[in-house]
Design goal:
Helix content: 25-40%
Number of strands: 11
Distance between the termini: 108 Å
Number of domains: 2
Strand content: 25-35%
Structural class: alpha/beta
CATH topology of the largest domain: Rossmann fold
CATH class of the largest domain: Alpha Beta
Oligomer: single chain
CATH architecture of the largest domain: 3-Layer(aba) Sandwich
Amino acid sequence: MLELLSQGQPLLAFFASARAGAANDEVACVHLGRMRPRSTQAQAPQKHRPAKTASSSVIGHPAHEIRIIGGLWKRSKLKVLDKPGLRPTPDRVRETLFNWLGQDLSGWQCVDAFAGTGVLGFEAASRGAAQVLMWEQDAALVAQLTDSKVRLKASMVQVQRGNAVNGLQHTAPGSMNLVFLDPPFEGELFAPALQAAAQAVAPGGWVYLEAPVLWTDEQLAPWFLKVQRHMKAGAVHAHLLQKMA
């Protein structure tokens, strides 16, 4: 092979000749005219690292808290418990809602039915509402609502544990300026809740509704409610309904 090199045979041809004449493939490379055998030692297998998977737990809000965005308690935090189906109304939707209503709710009588975190009711109280009645069935959420009320010194807020529809049905007819409705999406509470809210709210008053579908004026007509504003945020349809005289 050295003779071939000395005769000026091209280097690539030399490699081809060397490999073709070898009994086995022992030649791995040539460096400065010297050959070294290929290592036959097996490479150590790479360690397998299991892939990281996201937690499958469902929580009420990624940060476990939500902020009041306007009024006296602006930027105050409310805790969000890990509860299936708990959907605090997002900041952007609340901002839009209170732009629709006007930022000053001084003297208003309000009900936050299906209160959950109470963020809608506390937003109303923060903007001057004279009374906000919160209805919630879950004992842990009721305790959290009471804690938030005490911490904020929200004397105008009343927290009641019980069925929101029954609570609205026992509210004096036409006594409310605003009712917040955010029933569980998987239930069948929308029609009875709307009927009870329409009874409780005064003519010209408002019902705010969150639902998985759009409610039309035709569907709302039996309760003398009319859609004045609507927006869709993700899977939620937000409606501002007005009670017709």
